[in-house]
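Inverse folding, one chain.
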């Protein structure tokens, strides 16, 4: 036996009731069982649970949430629970300060990782996902998280995704009424078309339209609609991706495969209808400003004008552009369409115009050939690559000419990849004099450049993008010359509108949300198609539509570089499921099911609502329950969850999508909260050192040795150290199970909360965990005799606690309580540690009142040891619902504070004064102090600056 182990064994014999990892494990397991058996964390709802209990009804509510975890087969490492522990500490503190707290955790369990595992192993995704969930539940339970287990849900449960499908049906059967500024049932729109109140696009009567034609018309209004549109096609994954799932270099976020633009029929959500509301309602949310700004930038609101350019020889065809600078219209010398623009094919002439420049044709025999070749080339570029500033501009002439509506000039129409379909109309009027990219393109293709804004004197050789008076901007009907930008924009916009050429409008960067995935492991769409291809939603009685069994879970994948390949979904191979006979109210008919599935974001768009009422089989959520937990109230005009904690990486994905769904459900009267999450807090990341060998490959961190000179070796070979993420692939993961086994879960909780501010990333250091372990050991020793296991407190009496102890106690209560309420857990722990050290040094047994308040103070942070000590102190009820201690103001305020007296910036005296001393009294004391008198040397005083009670600054005459 080693000397270390011998010493440890001897210590255990001498102190058999010492707080050790073994004792911690026993305590933690017992109290976790107790909490489960007694429903300690079950939050009562307003109907039923709260009925007849006035005290409970009077308690304020607090709904606290973590972002949905994805159940990974690798399990948790110590970085994952950071936010979960933080919300648990906060929830416990809120319970102890009188709140009815709802805190639970579910699983966002659909998605690509489980499907890829299924493809590789043949294991059904449900099997591996449920196994991963059970492992995560075990790990989270070991941390002592106080979740209401009755409310936990998983998106893969048919009883849950029945309501995800139900919400999709509500969105599908709705349209956005711009006049009323709200979503309305699609039946109301149909009634308007039938009555003639609203004109049918194209001018025909509604009764004259076929079912398929009516479907097409309604598809232009529905909030969920299918369309043929350019999408992000990833052959390597066999699926399309949302813009947010594509990296800046044009590759898939998962798998790093190339992504191409392709035109496919896909389901979309008309989130753009809510752009203004999504933007405006941010102001009332208590979110980090950086996240709000990311959403503002993603929504990208800009004001300008839409202008129509007639195309020569193309009938009524017009190229519509959106521009924020209609005042520069006189400088438009050519036009550019995005390669994906739907108008291109209809304006291409059969042959090149006579005299066309060879550089404009790309060497192709015909315009159609030139455009086809250029489109293929553009497919392989990401949007970021296409818009990179100062790169060589490429493009090809379409052979068509448009007419500048203010000059009458014939201007060529090009296709170029620096214009995107994802912004504006996918077409631009190119004004090279006022736009750097247009200038570069004009120079590359020898196109005219006309300045329409007066640049500063001496400016030449490049585009001028600044402000200035208009020049070269007049015709025989209007002149903008000499006008500043604002006035020029207003005048030209009004002129265009009078002539039916254009109109003032608002544009958004935000695009409709691509909602289809060519995968198996996702929610099936509750949609079927009839023989005419018309989409019908399933009635509520047919929900949930469950995923069928399939023999092959993989979408058909392709050569990652094959941009011309097309998706084939796993569901499409199950013919018995796809082709069905259903009675949707007009008799049995043959239908074909939708074979795409919903994206993994669908289930997390509304899960906060299901937490409220998880067993309701009749409604999404009972209205009174939703109003109680999420309804609007003072300071929360849109309602929502009281605190939502998670990563900043979801700013324009989950958070934007969830806000959209909430607003639709609010408009349709299903919920009272127009926003899902009122307060958002982004926790930082726990990082870890990564050790890389000479090849740059990670090596096992636990096998690395640090040499005396500060370098590192792995099995005798030098390695370099860098700070990065923690994870299995980087071979630096530390599991919470390991730390809990060595020190106990309470120690792990304290360490993660003490590492630094919650919103800041911090490096993991296993060696530092012992500091919090020792805190708990000292805490235990202050209350429990390590030899006998009996409590050592003395009963309260007048002499039981001296004033120094009471001051230390109440200052800690006051400071730590404020810190916990503000999520400053690291400073709360520092204050508790300072108090505990003070009590340790006191050496005398603690008075019962001090010991009990010490236990209550640490209970939110270390709940297991707090429960055990509370029981040892003679209490039969749980510490969870005890009142948090309240500080006595008389002991919080210092009897005296130190005031610094400075002369010419140098400290000349320190005075002990009352905290409530006035400026006048403090000035008199300072000027009378002997050290100050000596320093002034009999000289006069020109000025005295007093900042009572801590500073006096004297300026000599």
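Residues assigned per position:
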């Amino acid at each position: 036996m080693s000397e270390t182990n011998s010493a440890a064994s001897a210590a255990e014999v001498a102190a058999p009731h010492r707080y050790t990892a073994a004792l911690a494990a026993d305590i933690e397991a017992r109290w976790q069982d107790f909490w489960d058996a007694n429903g300690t964390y079950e939050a009562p709802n307003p109907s039923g649970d709260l009925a007849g209990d006035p005290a409970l009804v009077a308690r304020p509510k607090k709904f606290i949430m973590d972002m949905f975890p994805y159940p990974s087969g690798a399990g948790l490492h110590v970085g994952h629970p950071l936010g979960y522990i933080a919300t648990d500490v906060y929830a416990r503190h809120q319970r102890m300060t009188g709140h009815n707290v709802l805190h639970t955790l579910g699983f966002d369990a659909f998605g690509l990782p489980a499907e890829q595992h299924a493809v590789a192993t043949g294991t059904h995704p449900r099997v591996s996902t449920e196994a991963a969930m059970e492992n995560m539940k075990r790990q989270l339970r070991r941390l002592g998280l106080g979740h209401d287990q009755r409310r936990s849900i998983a998106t893969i449960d048919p009883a849950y995704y029945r309501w995800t499908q139900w919400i999709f049906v509500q969105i599908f059967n709705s349209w956005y009424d711009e006049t009323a500024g709200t979503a309305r049932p699609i039946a109301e729109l149909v009634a308007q078309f039938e009555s003639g109140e609203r004109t049918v696009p194209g001018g025909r009567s509604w009764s004259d339209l076929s079912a398929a034609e009516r479907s097409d018309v309604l598809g232009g209004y529905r909030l969920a609609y299918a369309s043929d549109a350019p999408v992000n096609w990833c052959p390597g994954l066999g699926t399309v991706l949302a813009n947010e799932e594509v990296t800046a270099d044009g590759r898939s976020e998962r798998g790093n495969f190339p992504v191409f633009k392709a035109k496919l029929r896909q389901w979309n959500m008309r989130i753009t209808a809510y752009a203004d509301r999504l933007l405006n309602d941010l102001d009332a949310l208590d979110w980090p400003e950086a996240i709000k700004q990311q959403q503002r930038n993603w929504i990208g609101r800009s004001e300008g004008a839409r202008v129509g350019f007639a195309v020569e020889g193309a009938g009524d065809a017009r190229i519509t552009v959106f521009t924020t600078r209609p005042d520069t219209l006189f400088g438009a010398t050519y036009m550019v369409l995005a390669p994906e623009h739907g108008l291109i094919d209809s304006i291409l002439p059969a042959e090149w115009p006579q005299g066309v420049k060879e550089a404009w044709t790309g060497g192709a025999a015909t315009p159609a050939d030139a455009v086809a070749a250029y489109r293929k080339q553009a497919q392989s570029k990401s949007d970021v690559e296409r818009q990179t500033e100062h790169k060589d501009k490429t493009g090809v002439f379409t052979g068509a000419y448009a007419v500048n509506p203010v000059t009458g000039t014939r201007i060529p129409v090009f296709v170029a990849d620096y214009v995107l379909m994802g912004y504006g109309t996918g077409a631009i009027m190119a004004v090279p004099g006022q736009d750097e990219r247009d200038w570069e393109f004009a120079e590359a293709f020898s196109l005219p450049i006309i300045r329409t804004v007066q640049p500063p004197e001496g400016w030449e050789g490049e585009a001028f993008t600044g402000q200035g008076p208009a020049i070269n901007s007049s015709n025989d009907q209007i002149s903008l010359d000499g006008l500043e930008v604002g006035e020029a924009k207003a005048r030209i916009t009004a002129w265009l509108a009078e002539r039916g050429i254009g109109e003032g409008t608002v544009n958004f960067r935000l695009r409709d949300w691509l909602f289809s995935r060519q995968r198996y492991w996702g929610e099936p769409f509750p949609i079927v198609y009839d023989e005419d291809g018309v989409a019908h939603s399933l009635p509520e009685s047919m929900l949930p539509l469950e995923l069928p069994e399939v023999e092959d879970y993989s979408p058909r994948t392709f050569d990652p570089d094959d941009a011309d390949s097309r998706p084939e979904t796993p569901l499409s191979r199950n013919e018995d499921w796809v082709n069905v006979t259903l009675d949707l109210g007009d008799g049995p008919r043959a239908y074909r099911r939708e074979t795409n599935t919903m994206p993994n974001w669908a289930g997390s768009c509304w899960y906060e609502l299901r937490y409220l009422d998880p067993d309701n089989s009749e409604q999404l959520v009972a209205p009174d329950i939703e109003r109680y937990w999420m309804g609007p109230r003072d300071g929360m005009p849109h309602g929502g969850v009281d605190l939502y904690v998670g990563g900043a990486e979801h700013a324009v994905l989950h958070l934007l999508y969830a806000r959209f769904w909430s607003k639709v459900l609010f408009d349709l009267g299903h919920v009272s909260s127009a926003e899902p999450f009122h307060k958002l807090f982004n926790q930082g990341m726990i990082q870890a050192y990564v050790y890389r060998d000479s090849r740059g490959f990670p090596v096992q961190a636990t096998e690395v040795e640090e040499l005396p000179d500060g370098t590192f070796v792995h099995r005798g070979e030098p390695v370099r150290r860098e700070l990065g993420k923690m994870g299995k692939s980087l071979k630096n993961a530390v599991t919470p199970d390991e730390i809990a086994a060595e020190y106990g879960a309470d120690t792990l909780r304290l360490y993660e909360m003490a590492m630094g501010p919650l919103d800041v990333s911090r490096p993991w250091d296993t060696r530092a965990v012992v500091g919090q372990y020792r805190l708990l050991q000292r805490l235990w020793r202050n209350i429990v005799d390590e030899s006998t296991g009996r409590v050592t407190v003395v009963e309260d009496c007048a002499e039981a606690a001296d004033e120094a102890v009471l001051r230390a106690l109440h200052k800690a209560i006051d400071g730590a309580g404020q810190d916990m309420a503000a999520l400053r857990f690291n400073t709360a722990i520092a204050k508790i540690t300072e108090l505990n050290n003070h009590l340790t040094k006191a050496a005398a047994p603690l008075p019962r009142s001090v010991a009990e308040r010490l236990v209550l103070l640490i209970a939110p942070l270390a709940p297991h040891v707090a429960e055990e000590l509370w029981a040892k102190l003679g209490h039969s009820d749980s510490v969870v619902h005890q009142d948090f201690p309240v500080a006595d103001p008389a002991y919080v305020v210092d009897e005296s504070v130190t005031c610094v007296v400075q002369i010419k910036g140098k400290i000349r005296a320190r005075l002990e004064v009352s905290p409530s001393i006035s400026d006048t009294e403090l000035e008199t004391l300072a000027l009378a102090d002997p050290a100050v008198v000596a320093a002034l040397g009999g000289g006069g005083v020109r000025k005295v600056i007093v900042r009572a009670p801590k500073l006096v600054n004297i300026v000599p005459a």
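The first strand starts at residue 61 and ends at 66. Residues 803-821 form the longest helix (19 residues).
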